[in-house]
């Protein structure tokens, strides 16, 4: 970065433990070379994998095909079919059945093979093939329902890391060695199309406002608090992650970018069983993630319990440099340079327990309780320099900070499911959630220079959240293939947020009523939906409509310097969805989807008061904040169940964006509001390859062109083209060895009108070994081995500009041990579901 106040061209290089140092441009070229060399590794992985795959495909090979049905003879789509060598069970190729239940393997070398068939809710099945030396069509395979498993039979199915479905992408967390010892947030960061910014906001395919569900339930939390929760949840507790960019009307309409559903583990094995996971990681600081899963199932009962603990320490290294201008936005008046280092020890506990009671084969009752308790302390000490027009330091401010966040969460769920017949089912869910958050802040600032002084600020910011939600869903199959769904949902939220501040004046702490705040908010949402799906020859059609009524009331309580104020609003919205899929032949399937979605303002961002971030940065809410609405359109092509190409187009009106303002005292204030319109055009490629029997590759690439138009004092327009790439290589060797090489890369990005982010990425490696007759696993992984996953960028304010770079403890080596115990699989438990589908996402989204 070139600094205008230095007489000769120099640049800033960032180190992990220090602020910026100045070096010449030749050294900068070397640094850039190293940076781009690291990024190039990921590019080469894409190119090399494609080249090898092309070479591995033998035009002179033969074709193997067949079909799969259920126990009634109905053709089954989306069944995972694996072609394996008879000699050593090495995987040759992987595919899945199309909408007509058929599968095809092409360009197969002559030899002896067998086929493996797996799909949810059915017993895995294998068939031995005769010697293959000519095109071969296997006899139809009939899969039995999972409840037909016999006691004493052990079934082991190996899941791929990424499963590509027409309506969603599924990430199987345990399939990646580099997920060992990781947190849920770290797993999300490297999931296809997902990114996390410096405030903890999660984006999907370049779009913010993603609805995050936990076992079908929203967290009802602001982005920063949600990020803290996910960073305290061990990846060993997660079974899979579902990514849906255009969900049906059955789901809440919130989230213009789509839905990410994180499903936690729940054992299905008869008898007493479970697993233990112990993991220790070391970056700059320690990371200790341990978890326990217990399950007991016998007769009509299924009892389960999961517990995890996270004891770790992390850091955040922030460098900020601000330029302040005169009204012409060209003449620099002064500058402010501030490197900051924050250390954060963390202790977190997560507990989930529940019971399923089976009233015969058609009715299931369930109850569960979840609990979270965590404490995070953040301690920092930094100095900032004010630089005048003569390029001289005229004052220095030193800041000490000590913040403590305590988090308590309790959740209760009651559910009932009844199948009247095989084609009629009713489910009911009731949820009650409580959050108690306490944030204690302390800041002390000492200014040295022409006007020396010392001031201090301490605050107590407790908040409570109470949520009740209920929903009912009914589905019925009419005739042979018309599937109807309808349902109702109601949610009610009450939140109480306080901020009590005291300022240090003349060595005495006095109430600071200008910053003290008390905000009450309540919201109710009622929803009805209907959805229909039918198979017509080669066409699969689906359409739905969702109605939502929203009403809220907010009260800003006054004090001796401020009067009470309140505001409220009610509005109705319709959300149509449409899906169409056409199977041209066994190799090509074309799909189209369209839907309207909403993003409601986060509760806390409606609070019209100022929140302290540091001495020179504040945040304020906006009571006039309106929801934004988005139309999403997608057209996709699925080729041989291995390659999905998707074109996307979306238009967002009343677009949300952060807004930054500055004043003559150097204070930066930011808020959010409805600025204008955003248009997003994208192209994505997703592929699963098997270049060799021991090597499988998953490739993801998303290219987005985004244009944002709005008004911040003056009209502003911004456009950016962003490329996101993700590659995962899985290597399986004899003797139970598994290795992984994975990484992602994101080019220059822009989510707000006034902020642009520089490119970032990382590369990770892992190694695993099955031991104790495959009952235990040892794993070693290193995440971000080149330490490139930093976040840097530029923010433009009114008469000011800031460069920032944020680095965390992302390079971590982890050693983990997993032990699995229990009896064979028998039967399937109920599906996990909940009434709470959106609100957890919206407590504040800071």
Automatic annotation (TrEMBL):
Location, primary (coarse class): membrane
Which residues belong to any copy of the Outer membrane protein beta-barrel domain? 421-819
List where in the cell it is found: Cell outer membrane
For bias type Basic and acidic residues, the affected ranges are: 837-846
Entry keyword Membrane = yes
The reply to whether Ligase figures as a keyword in the UniProt entry is no
InterPro entries in UniProt = Beta-barrel_TonB_sf, CarboxyPept-like_regulatory, Ig-like_fold, OMP_b-brl_3, Plug_dom_sf
From the UniProt entry, list the residue stretches annotated as the region Disordered.
Answer: 827-846
Q: Which UniProt keywords apply?
A: Cell outer membrane, Membrane, Receptor
Name this polypeptide is given: TonB-dependent receptor
